[in-house]
Every structure is written in C-alpha cells, then in structure tokens.
Amino acid sequence: MHCPSAPDGICEREFDLAFHPSKRAGRRAGSYRTCQGCRRRILRRASLRIIRDPEGRCRPDLFGKLPGRGMHVCPNIACFEAAKRNQAASRAFHKQTSFGDPRTMAATFLDSGRRQALAQLSVAVRSGFLIAGRTAVMDALKAGRSAMVLLATDGSHSLRREVSSLAGQNKVPSFSALDKQSLSSFHHGKPLAVVAVSHRGIASRLSYELKKICELQDSLGEFVEREGHLTVNSVRGKMRTHHTDGSGRRS
Questions:
Q1: What is the per-residue pLDDT for 188?
Q2: Which CATH class is domain 12-100?
Q3: Residues 199/189, Cβ–Cβ less than 8 Å
C-alpha cells in the first residue's frame, strides 16, 4: 500500500501509522480529529477535547480521557468562538448544548496545560533528565544532549535569541511558554530563564503540551502567568502618568 508523504509539521511516524494497512476503515480510535471551529483535521494529541455534562453544558476534558462522546477544537480562541457561534456543540452531541464563555473555557485549558507541563518537568528532574541554566543548556545543545529547550517568557531577549538560534542550528525544538517564577522550583527557588530536557520520550510528550500552551497564549494575548506576574497588558515598571494644568504643574 502506498503511503502519501506527510504534510509539514506532522511527524512521519504518526502519519505513516494513520495510513498503515492494518488500520481498519472506520476504526474508532484514529489519530486525527476535526476541529469543530475551523473544520480542519488535526492530530488528536494536538487538539483540546470538550464533553457535555448531564446539565447540558460543555465542560473541558483537561486530560482527554473522560468517558462519553466528545468534541475537539484547536488550541486557539478563534476556534472556541467559532464553535459557539455555529452551535457546533449541539450538532456534535446531537442534543441542545450550551457552550458557555469561550475565553473562560480556553483559559481553563491554558491553566491546566501549564500545570501538566510543570508536572512533566518534575518527572524529568526526578529522572535526572533536566538541564537548568544558560551555560548548561548551551553546552548540552553543542554536545547534542538536548532533545527540547524551554525558555521563560519573561527572560531577556538576548538570551532567548541566542538559545533559540543555537537550538535551531541543531534542529532542537524550542518553546517559550512559562515564566521564570514558574521554573524557579527546578532551580532551588531561584528565577530560572531556560531549561532543556535530554530524554527524547519526555521531550516528545512535553512538546505537544507546550505547543498547545503557546498557541493558546498567543491567541488569548497572554505570554506569562497571570497570578502576580507580568502580562502583555501589565504596566508594572512604567512611570505613572501625571496630568498637568496650563502652567506645567502637576495636578
């Protein structure tokens, strides 16, 4: 059986499995799902799953494992809003279903994704596969020991540019999804701007979670954690605006 070439951005192995001869037509657990917002086919692991509760309201399936029928959307607020606007939930569940507030649901997925990413980083720490700090990460990239790089969203631009460039040269995926305070638990409580994962299995699972976090952050206009930390709309560090009267004195 001839298998077509995989589209850009899709793992060759996962694409080949989707067209494997032993994969029966109509098999229930496929590798792809259709987004109910934009109607694109996306990898199941790259989608967000929503279920219907007994009261007829949509609820986020944060781990993608709750029983029953589910609907899938891309990790993008535009798809959440399109799904609500087109009443996609009622069609997907074959019952009248209230979708709720798209931004609230997307934010819930975002917060859950951050917690899951931190949990997977904890696994890497306990297993001895986490590399922390600029010098250690740069050395690991040069030696080919890094499978994935995570940069703090509020790290310096020069550091992010330097590490991202080196990671790109070595064909190592890099993400910017958590802030320095969130990563501090992996650095004796001190703010941490960059970490790397050396285990390819952990890096692969973490990469899927980080991709969804990055897409949700970009679509929601968020780049770091909201609880007490800087955000895109923050004015922390800026001088207060003073109003003056006609004589130039502050009012």
A1: 85
A2: alpha beta
A3: no
State the Cα–Cα distance between residues 136 and 125, nearest whole angstrom: 14
228: three-class secondary structure by DSSP: coil
12-100 and 105-220 in the same fold: no
- In percent, the amount of the chain with pLDDT more than 70 equals 76
Query: Whole-angstrom Cα distance, residue 16 to residue 144?
Result: 27
Residue 102 contacts residue 50 (beta carbons within 8 Å): no
Instruction: Name residues whose C-beta falls within 8 Å of residue 179's C-beta, 6 or more positions apart in sequence.
Output: 152, 153, 154, 224, 225, 229, 230
The domain made up of 105-220 has a fold known as 60s Ribosomal Protein L30; Chain: A; (3.30.1330)
pLDDT at 18 over 90: no
Say which range, 24-28, 128-132, 158-162, 166-170, has the weakest mean pLDDT.
24-28
Instruction: State pLDDT tens for residues 120-151.
Output: 999 999 999 999 999 999 999 999 999 999 99
Query: 147-167 burial by CB neighbour count: b if 16+ within 10 A, else e?
Result: bbbbbbbbbeeebbeebbebb
54-86 burial, b for 16+ CB within 10 Å, e for fewer? Answer: eeeebebbbeeeeeeebbbbbbbbebbbbbbee
Residue with tokens 């999804």: 177
Please give the pLDDT value at position 222.
65
What DSSP designation does 67 have? S
Cβ atoms of residues 151 and 159 within 8 Å: yes
Q: Where are the domains of the chain?
A: 12-100, 105-220
